[in-house]
Q: What sequence folds into this?
């Protein structure tokens, strides 16, 4: 097929509105979509003049973006700009939200207390009004005395003062007029909020997830937190709602979603806005293990529908299974069918038009899967597995 | 008549509209490369290159199979060398010529790398015997002067390495008005038969293509081979010369007094055949339709009936409009089929004509309720093999809720037809074949709400998305508009609105006809630029939704006194030599 350009559409920061600003051709575009979370990360490069690059640094951190290819009704990816890098001819200048915390508190444990304690939040309301609430929780040391919490609040206030706005850095090198944009999906905004809940009820995961999303500090800024349409019913277990150790909203959701229902995995994330619905909402549902794609080793594993028709690589999605149809033909033995695997994650690279499908047995991403899960397996190494 | 005129020049700037007494254009700066007394090609001449695949193309390759498959075939810029000689005996003139070359090289780079150098720099070439010049935007010029600078008696050798865009623009230079191409095909001369007053992009009827549209596809019945209402523009193959995709400037106009300013607008291109003959009924021509009217549905499910008055001319009538109204009681119900199109004896639901990838948009609305009350889904069935050869798209729960009398687009997903191969071929050994109906399309509904609900369905639109499609979402402030005004949306990838720059520009204007006040308005456009394929018939579909509560007066698809007007102008292109004549 001839070239199919990828376009990056930039909109206002969600706290300011939803208006369209501009659209740029995206070069070197790549994205990751994960069954847990959905739109995960993306990055691309833009060709801009020097002045335009500086404007990007100044204005577009935290802005909403959507990437369109051939289908104008469905973006292939959607999220927020979290890092912009400007190569300004000899200097590479970066600005990002990664180390910004406009709401800070400290979690600590005093020597005479059975429970962890937390200071109140210190807030930079001006930053919150622009970017939304991005909270950080500092883990303070175990205290052996019963004393005042002045040190905790001072740590908190210092971090807030220093990191209440996007941070910048510079290094030497780079070309001229290239802006690199790194983006994160909206589910990452659930990592921006810390949870503190002293409640004592035992609730189902459905109730817990519904309640925690409905109470997020950012309210409806990034997702429609009152829309529980896609929160499925899982009554397989109940668990206490108490949270005291400064975990994030997303960590709580992972904690309650990963157990599944005893038979099936359950996944959660943020459903993208659609043509018919302009808001995003949380999904929590049993995973979809139906085979919806096939591939053939002999043509480079290009993803196809069940009838063999090619699927456009930028439209390949996780949370379904794929079957390799030209290996182990006639296999019929005990255990899982080795020709089929569930797609946990999809990586797409526009320049090579290739899609990398990630499953739980993928040794190359074992470390990444460990990092992303709430329940970490014991005794498992990070990085490449040991091989003789 | 043989034309012996030849030209080769580097030009900076956009030509003024002919006869314009108040033009703000700067003077065009040309540098002639065929000037024997100044700068001229040497005996080796110049061999214009043809654009090649960028980086050799993107291929899918496997050691387990023979050959490899081409995945992506974008072409790259062309880099060519010209060897020129400076033969001027006046040394100062040689210095001046070098200075002009260096300035043009700087300007060519700055045009792309800065925002302040806004005059395009391009190569103009008029080939021997050709009827028109052709132009290519220059990205970079490298200059090498190889001769002894102190040798004033011998001509100097200058080598230019020029990087230009892959395709030549026929007749119309970068930044030029594409309407001039249309005038040239009529045999008109610039400044003689037409001048600056004849170049408006949104006025008049004398354009490359001019058509009134109805925002629906309706057919004379019972044969369904003559259109009553059209939502497309057909451009014959003979009108699109060249061998590279032609750039297009498309203007869509709507008179607000008709009740509906342009809101969401889709423009999609297809080169699929628009008519066919089946072996079953060779005396009847089958026509490709971009939409399936609800009134033409083969079957209507429980609670539904074809209601006259609004909608599309259909249901066996040539004058009466129909839509389908589903009136459901309080009970919820599981997913059930409510509409089916198939076994049509008139236009074919056929996988030879309807092949490719399509966006499925249902124009419908719930009369009241909340999101999630009703869920809809589409199922496509090949060859009537229900349960065997079918694809059901994902269920959609956010059905538009009507505000007043408007109808909305409801996106139901995308589909690739046929499911596996590119098109259906005859199992009778007849090759590519149009059949009466080898495709059934079914609409399913699931009612979740336990309140009574009414769903109106007007038509199902299948928008091709493989050859270029634009979705424009103009935003406008109703305070800017009155009943006396038009809204005009312009889609331009010719470079006219961008003053020579690459890329697509979409602008929306509110034009107050009494004072020609152009009010630019923010317009987001999504999708890929629409270009016309040379040498084949092209069809451009135009579809709109109308949901501005301020201007409600009647439901969609009613005939309006003014309707919509589409004007199209093009810049044909070629990779080689402009082979055009008039």
A:
């Amino acid at each position: 097929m001839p070239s199919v350009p990828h376009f990056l559409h930039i909109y206002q920061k969600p706290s300011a509105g939803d208006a369209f600003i501009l659209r740029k051709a995206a070069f070197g575009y790549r994205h990751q979509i994960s069954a847990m979370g959905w739109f995960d990360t993306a990055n691309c490069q833009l060709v801009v003049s020097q002045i335009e690059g500086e404007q990007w640094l100044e204005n577009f951190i935290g802005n909403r973006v959507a990437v369109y290819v051939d289908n104008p009704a469905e973006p292939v990816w959607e999220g927020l700009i979290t890092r912009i890098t400007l190569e300004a001819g000899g200097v590479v200048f970066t600005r990002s939200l990664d180390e910004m915390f406009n709401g800070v508190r400290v979690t600590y444990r005093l020597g005479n207390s059975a429970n962890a304690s937390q200071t109140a939040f210190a807030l930079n309301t001006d930053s919150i009004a622009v970017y939304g609430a991005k909270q950080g929780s500092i883990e303070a040391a175990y205290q052996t005395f019963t004393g005042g919490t002045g040190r905790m609040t001072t740590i908190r206030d210092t971090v807030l003062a220093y990191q209440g706005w996007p941070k910048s850095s510079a290094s030497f090198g780079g070309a001229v007029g290239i802006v690199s944009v790194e983006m994160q999906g909206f589910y990452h905004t659930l990592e921006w909020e810390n949870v503190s809940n002293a409640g004592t009820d035992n609730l189902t995961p459905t109730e817990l997830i519904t309640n925690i999303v409905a109470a997020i500090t950012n309210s409806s800024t990034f997702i429609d937190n009152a829309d529980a349409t896609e929160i499925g019913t899982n009554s397989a277990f109940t668990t206490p709602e108490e949270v005291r150790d400064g975990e994030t909203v997303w960590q709580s959701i992972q904690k309650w979603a990963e157990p599944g229902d005893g038979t099936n995995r359950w996944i959660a994330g943020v459903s993208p806005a659609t043509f018919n619905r302009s808001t995003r909402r949380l999904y929590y549902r049993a995973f979809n293990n139906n085979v919806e794609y096939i591939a053939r080793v002999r043509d480079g594993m290009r993803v196809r529908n069940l009838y063999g028709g090619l699927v456009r690589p930028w439209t390949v999605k996780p949370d379904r299974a794929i079957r390799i149809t030209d290996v182990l033909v006639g296999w019929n033995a005990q255990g899982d069918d080795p020709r089929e695997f569930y797609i946990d994650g999809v990586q797409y690279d526009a320049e090579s038009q290739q899609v990398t499908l990630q499953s739980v047995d993928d040794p190359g991403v074992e470390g990444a899967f460990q990092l992303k899960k709430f329940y970490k397996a014991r005794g498992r190494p990070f990085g490449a597995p040991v091989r003789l | 008549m043989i034309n012996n005129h030849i030209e080769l020049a580097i030009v900076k700037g956009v030509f003024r509209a002919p006869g314009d007494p108040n033009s703000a254009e700067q003077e065009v700066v040309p540098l002639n490369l065929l000037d024997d007394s100044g700068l001229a090609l040497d005996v080796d001449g110049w061999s214009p290159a043809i654009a090649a695949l960028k980086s050799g193309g993107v291929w899918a390759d496997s050691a387990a199979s023979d050959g490899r498959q081409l995945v992506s075939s974008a072409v790259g810029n062309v880099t060519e060398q010209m060897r020129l000689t400076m033969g001027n005996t006046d040394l100062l003139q040689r210095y001046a010529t070098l200075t002009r070359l260096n300035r043009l090289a700087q300007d060519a780079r700055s045009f792309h790398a800065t925002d302040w150098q806004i005059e395009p720099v391009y190569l103009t070439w008029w080939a021997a015997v050709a009827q028109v010049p052709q132009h290519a935007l220059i990205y970079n010029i490298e200059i090498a002067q190889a001769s002894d600078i102190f040798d004033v008696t011998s001509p100097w050798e200058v080598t230019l390495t020029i990087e230009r865009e892959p395709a030549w623009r026929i007749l119309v230079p970068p930044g030029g008005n594409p309407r001039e191409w249309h005038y040239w095909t009529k045999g008109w001369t610039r400044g003689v038969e037409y001048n600056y007053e004849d170049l408006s992009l949104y006025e008049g009827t004398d354009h490359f293509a001019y058509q009134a549209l109805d925002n629906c596809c309706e057919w004379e019945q019972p044969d369904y081979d003559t259109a009553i209402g059209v939502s497309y523009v057909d451009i014959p193959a003979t009108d699109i010369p060249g061998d590279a995709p032609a750039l297009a400037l498309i203007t869509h106009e709507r008179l607000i007094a008709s009740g509906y300013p342009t809101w969401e607008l889709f423009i999609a291109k297809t080169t699929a055949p628009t008519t066919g003959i089946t072996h079953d009924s060779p005396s009847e021509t089958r026509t490709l339709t971009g939409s399936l009217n609800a009134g033409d549905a083969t079957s209507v499910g429980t609670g539904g009936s074809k209601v006259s008055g609004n909608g599309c001319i259909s249901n066996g009538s040539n004058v009466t409009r129909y839509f389908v109204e589903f009136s459901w009681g309080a009970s919820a119900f599981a997913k059930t089929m409510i509409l089916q199109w198939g076994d049509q004896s008139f236009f074919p639901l056929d996988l030879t004509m309807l092949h490719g990838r399509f966006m499925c948009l249902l124009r419908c609305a719930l009369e009241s309720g909340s999101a999630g009350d009703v869920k809809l889904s589409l199922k496509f069935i090949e060859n009537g093999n229900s349960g065997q050869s079918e694809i059901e798209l994902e269920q959609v729960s956010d059905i538009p809720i009507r505000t007043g009398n408007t109808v909305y687009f409801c996106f139901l997903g995308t589909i690739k037809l046929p499911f596996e191969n590119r098109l259906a071929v005859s199992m009778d050994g007849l090759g590519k074949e149009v059949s009466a109906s080898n495709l059934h399309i079914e609409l399913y509904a699931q009612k979740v709400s336990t309140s009574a609900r009414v769903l109106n369905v007007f038509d199902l639109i299948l928008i091709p998305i493989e050859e270029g499609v634009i979705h424009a979402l103009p935003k406008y402030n109703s305070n800017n508009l009155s009943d006396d005004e038009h809204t005009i949306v312009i889609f331009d990838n010719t470079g006219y609105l961008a003053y020579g720059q690459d890329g697509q520009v979409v602008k929306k204007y509110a034009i107050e006809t009494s004072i020609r006040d152009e009010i630019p308005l923010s317009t987001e456009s999504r999708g890929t630029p629409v270009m016309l394929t040379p040498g084949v018939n092209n069809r451009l579909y135009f579809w709109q939704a109308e949901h501005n509560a301020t201007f409600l007066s009647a439901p969609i698809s009613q005939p309006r006194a003014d309707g919509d007007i589409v004007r199209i102008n093009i810049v044909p292109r070629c990779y080689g030599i402009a082979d055009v004549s008039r």
Notes: The helical segments of chain A are 50-59, 125-131, 150-163, 205-214, 249-257, 366-372. Chain A touches chain B at residues 1-5, 7, 9, 19-20, 23, 25, 49-52, 68-75, 177, 229, 274-277, 297-300, 302, 305, 307-309, 312, 351-353 (CB under 8 Å). The mean pLDDT of chain A is 87. The CA atoms of residues 110 and 153 of chain A lie 14 Å apart.
